[in-house]
Fold:
Amino acid sequence: MDQFEEQAEIVRQEQLTPEIFRLTLKAPEIAANARPGQFVMVQTTPCSDPLLRRPLSIHQTIGNEQVQLLYKVVGKGTRLLAAMLPGQSLNLTGPLGHGFDLAGKPAICLVGGGMGIAPLYFLAREILRTTRPPKCVVLLGARNAAELGPLPRDFMDVGATETHLATDDGSLGHHGFVAELLPQHLDPGLPWTVCTCGPHPMLKAVVSQCRKQGWECQVSLETMMACGISACLGCAIPRADLSGSYLHVCKDGPVFKAEEVAWL
Amino acid sequence: MTQPDLRVTIGGLVFKNPVLTASGTFGYAKEFAPYVNLHHLGGVVVKGISLEPRRGNPPPRIVETAGGMLNAIGLENVGLDCFIAEKMDYLRGIGTRVIVNILGDSLEEYQTLAQRLSEVEGISGLEINISCPNVKKGGVAFGTDPAMAEAVTRAVCAHTTLPVIVKLSPNVTDITRIARAVEAGGAQAVSLINTLLGMAIDAKSRRPKLANIVGGLSGPAIKPIALRMVWQVAQAVKIPVIGIGGISTTEDALEFLLAGATAIEVGTANFVNPRASQEIVEGLGRYVTDNGLAGISEVIGGLILD
Structure:
């Protein structure tokens, strides 16, 4: 797998909501090699505070040169990112990890919660452009309508016509959790492949429904990590049977088959 | 223009330059091949190897702190057999010296590791991690007791023809005592410092941030402590000292060399900037050239005390 280190110039920094930003960077080598589900490690400052790079999934590539990231300001690193302006540059390494594998799947459902929506947009765009599965349903959830911002529209625009929404406060779409939309919108007679990314409780709920229905499920996971290239071994997660060696999110993932990992 | 002379000698081995990568921060080197010309480095110290594979600690294993990070990886590694069978082929071809870091829970384990690795082609030296507890001696770390540190060094040296570097723990009252003990035990060099024991708590949940509760602090935050210890040890022993601890830049590396280190290891900086080690090699070359030095060895121990 090809990995690159690039000093990436910021092309655009868009504030979608008070906390959510969309950052477009010029990183030709990463853009040309990235697959949906892969991530980059972003150095938020050349100083030592915060010290470590931040792992961010790739929201999409634009043309052959640009990489777009969707992130929420949650701490010091993302606050620094949000203050960066076009013309300035950030150091990126990537593309890292394994992405989603959807070759030849006839019925695909993407389930994203909060910032977990980020990699699913790249995935939706790619599959609708290339493999064009006969069925493709997108389910998006967030705390409220503001947090979803322009994202539902973006999915519709790339051809995800069957996009359904859920918000915790009912301000948009279904009033409740996004996982509750699966039985409503997925025909149990079809062999679904569900791809999901989001907060842990949401993933657990989605995985549990897929298991009940016998659907294949691919999950994109997030953990603390220092390096992103399987040197620090900080991103360990237990295997499904809780035995043997740990899996490492950066190298074995971030996309896993749901049955590979333990759902504690 | 002639190439600057960056060569240094440790335990009879000539290294093309004094920049090595620290164990546990550089994988088995292959992980960094997309970012670094491995043959430009002075050497690579590979992830610590134990006799049997180790699973390591449960997550969370790392936490970021001001200017550094805490880790409690728990010495996860593939074990000796897998290391020899699956990792050495690649390492033999990287064009620089390979030092294997070893760790065990008893003298016998260290001896077996030393013996087995001495028979493997392509290994330049051993670095002994003595921060592990001796399970047979009530779990006291080999590295915190001078007599035990000397004993494990002696045991390893008796079972290998390779140069032996002992990696010292800073979690002791007087690191020079341990350094002198391992020198007496036959070590050809010492490397220091390993991580400093630390802790972080999530005030909201009132729980430790690491599953292991405590972990090892590394990164720029520990550099002044490491530098002080390297300076003290360099005066206390006759064998070469390899400086480790928060080295991220050429200037950091120069500070350690001036304090008396013959070489340095780049650790946590590899995570932050995967090209850090190579950049330091290049930076040291420029320093030698710009200052009209005959070689980097002129810098070693060059601290001026007025």
